[in-house]
Amino acid sequence: SLVLLSNIDGLYTADPRTVSNAEFIPQVDEITPKIESMAGFASDHGSGGMVTKLMAAKICMDAGCRMAIAPGKLNHPLTQLVNSGRCTWFLPAAGPRAARKRWIAGSLQTLGALVVDNGAFIALNSGKSLLPAGIVDVSGDFERGDAVEVRTKDGEVIGKGLSAYAAADISTIKGQKSEKMEELLGFRGRSEVIHRDDLFMRS
């Protein structure tokens, strides 16, 4: 979790220092335009003000991380927070793993493609990682950590993931058992070409 300490104890519908009926918001599950408009009042003297804090909250929530805006002028503010002190919590809809897959699916440009056989297609759809034995072809010029498409032999794009190996290395190990990878490559690496945590599959 990320905690931002402020001179205000959380998010309000309006400036509580000037609007007597401003309502305190203890929890935010989604940053909507309405929530963003509530930050417009902020003359928060902390770094960046409330608008910047909401931007930080959105980044955290998209990454599957919780964030709190809490008062920083109290004695031992973090202890107060742990003991259910007053604050606004921003809670993500999904955990870190789901958020990571969403990031892979929507934010990264692919630099190549891996074509898989029917056995790998079935395994991937059941939540398994992509092993070299299931790869029949590789295209593109990419390095370890780059995003690649996963395709069937018919050319259908079925997923997108982060490759644990460069294109040249995958060309060497495609169709081979994981136990032979070190012998073929001359170094020891991961047994998966794309780990299931780094793979987004289309439904």
What does this structure look like?
- By secondary structure, this protein is α/β, with parallel strands linked by helices.
- It folds into two domains: 2-93, Carbamate kinase, CATH 3.40.1160.10; 100-201, Roll (Archaeosine Trna-guanine Transglycosylase, Chain: A, domain 4).
- The protein has helices at residues 33-38, 49-62, 77-82, 96-107, 118-125, 167-173, 181-185; strands at 2-6, 11-12, 24-25, 27-28, 67-71, 88-90, 110-116, 135-140, 147-151, 157-162, 199-201.
- The chain has a five-stranded mixed beta sheet with strand order 8-7-9-10-11, sandwiched between helices.
- A hairpin with a 5-residue loop joins strand 9 and strand 10 (157-162).
- The longest helix is centred in the first third of the chain and has 14 residues, at 49-62.
- Mean pLDDT is 89; it is low at 41-47.
Count of helical stretches: 7
Q: Give the CATH level 1 class of the largest domain.
A: Mainly Beta
Indicate the low-confidence ranges by residue numbers. 41-47
In total, the number of domains comes to 2
What is the CATH superfamily classification of the largest domain?
A: PUA domain
Helix content: 25-40%
Explain briefly what this protein structure is.
By secondary structure, the chain is of the alpha/beta class.
Task: Give keywords.
alpha/beta; Archaeosine Trna-guanine Transglycosylase, Chain: A, domain 4; 2 domains; 5-stranded mixed β-sheet; 7 helices; 11 strands; 29% helix
Describe how the helices and strands are arranged.
Layout: E1 2-6, E2 11-12, E3 24-25, E4 27-28, H1 33-38, H2 49-62, E5 67-71, H3 77-82, E6 88-90, H4 96-107, E7 110-116, H5 118-125, E8 135-140, E9 147-151, E10 157-162, H6 167-173, H7 181-185, E11 199-201
Parallel strand pairs: 1-5, 4-6, 7-9
Antiparallel strand pairs: 2-3, 5-6, 7-8, 9-10, 10-11
